[in-house]
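Narrative summary of target 7.
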Amino acid sequence: MAGTRGFGVDIGGSGIKGCVVDLEAGKLLGERVRTNTPQPSTPDAIADVVAKTVEEFDWRGPVGVTLPTVVKHGKALSAANISKKWIGTDAHALFAERLGRQPNEIVVLNDADAAGMAEIRYGSDIDRSGVVVLLTFGTGIGSAVFLDGQLVPNTEFGHLEVDGHDAETRAAASVKEEHDLSWEEWAKRVTRYLRRLEDLIWPDLIIAGGGVSKKADKWLPLLDVRTKVVAAELRNDAGIVGAAVAADIGVQH
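Modeled conformation, tokenized:
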């Protein structure tokens, strides 16, 4: 790694979180700063929050930023849980300008891809060979796919059609809260979703991330799937850590 510290900002449909990261340990250095995602969540509004977040830490180095969108060559090409105005936005140029950074000091990537990078790099010693899928259960469902540790960027398996519905409209963590589902009721929905995913890509391991991973003991044992499912080690900090890693090594999809 180029440095021992980095900085990541994780943008989600409900919150924007940022912190300095210990790149050797894969942990946050101090308390993260969290701000509610502005509504409407336009590029300019979100860029303002990101700039303020970085300023709070007086951070002068490279910055990694995640978006809940497909990101290719620094451009956002989708927008599932943020303003549609992001579609076609040159996010890399936007954040470089707003943060006063050179182009090589900013990396923008999909939020689930960032979380997956962090889990693969810093997670437990469970065998990560073969096809590994990280799923972030939050406002929506994000996915990151790895083959023998190498990322296949910008997968969108949270939008699989399951029983005629977009999967994340049935099995995201936000759906559990919105409909006041019990863990058992929600786990049945997640099981149905995972079975559909299993039939398509036959993963060797599934890592369950997002905020709901903090309560993995309440729902992972209720799943009825053939693939081993484990809770994300970095919990809801994985996106921040992965963003910092991406900025440190210069990853840009």
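Residues 183-201 form the longest helix (19 residues).
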